Each structure stands twice: as structure tokens, then as C-alpha cells.
């Protein structure tokens, strides 16, 4: 049975307001540890409007609003696809994370995230187990 996205995803995604400064968001993400690798920005209505990695936030001007710096296209994935396919999607798109979003109509909010690093680590472990 192949490893699926749902087997590797991390439930819960840090969020921020798009008006918060990069410095404020970075401090919060650093306190989250490994869970704080990425953040999804929410607009004034609480809808997901973009995302940014902690690494990119650290490189940004700490006084600028994250909404001015974020990626507006949130890369998404289904929980039921093979993790290897998700990893290839990430490589093809040039991203290290994919998000799983709630399906509620009119309420795009992140529910989980999956990272290329976590997939590769799990796949390496499963290949080593079969050797």
C-alpha cells in the first residue's frame, strides 16, 4: 500500500492576518518550532489569501506587512493521493510545501500542510525497511 499524503501531513497550520508585519509573524513562527515552517495569511474576512515560508519571512523587511510579501497562489493537494506524487508536484512547482484546505464553500482556510522534507524522510525510511 503506497504512503498517502494523509499519512504524512501535519494537521493545523499557523495563520496570521495579512496586515501583520513580517517581524511579528517571524517571531511567532520561531516559537512554534518545526510546526512553524510556513504560515497562511488571512484577510479581513478570515479567508486564506496567501502564504509564506519562515525562511522567506526571515529574509524580508521585518517592518513590511506580510500581505505585501506573500505568495497569493496557495499550492494545494488532496489527502488521498500518493505522497510520492505530492513530492513530484512540489518539485514541478518549485515549492517545499502543499496545503490541504477545508472544503467549506466560501471559507478557504488551511487544515493541514505537507512538506517535501517530511515526505522524503518517510520514503527513505520505508525504502530502508524493505532493503
How would you portray this structure in words?
This protein is α+β, with helices and mostly antiparallel strands and about 130 residues long. It is built from six helices and six strands. It has helices at about 5-10, 20-30, 55-60, 65-70, 85-95, 115-130, and strands at about 10, 15, 40, 50-55, 95-100, 110-115. It has a three-stranded antiparallel sheet. A three-stranded mixed sheet has the order 2-3-4. A hairpin with an 8-residue loop joins strand 5 (about 95-100) and strand 6 (about 110-115). Helix 5 packs across helix 6 (about 115-130). The longest helix has 14 residues, at about 115-130. The chain is globular and about 45 Å long. The two termini are about 15 Å apart.
Helix/strand order: HEEHEEHHHEEH
SS field, number of helical segments: 6
Task: Describe the main β-sheet briefly.
Answer: 3 strands, antiparallel
| Through-space gap between termini | 17 Å
Number of strands: 6
Q: Write down the Rg.
A: 15 Å
Strand content: 15-25%
Can I get a quick summary?
The protein has 131 residues and is an alpha+beta fold. It has helices spanning 5-8, 22-32, 54-59, 66-69, 83-93, 116-129, and strands at 10-11, 15-17, 38-42, 48-53, 97-101, 110-115.
Provide tags for this entry.
single chain; 131 residues; alpha+beta; 3-stranded antiparallel beta sheet; 3-stranded mixed beta sheet; 6 helices; globular
Topology, element by element:
Elements: H1 5-8, E1 10-11, E2 15-17, H2 22-32, E3 38-42, E4 48-53, H3 54-59, H4 66-69, H5 83-93, E5 97-101, E6 110-115, H6 116-129
Parallel strand pairs: 2-3
Antiparallel strand pairs: 1-6, 3-4, 5-6
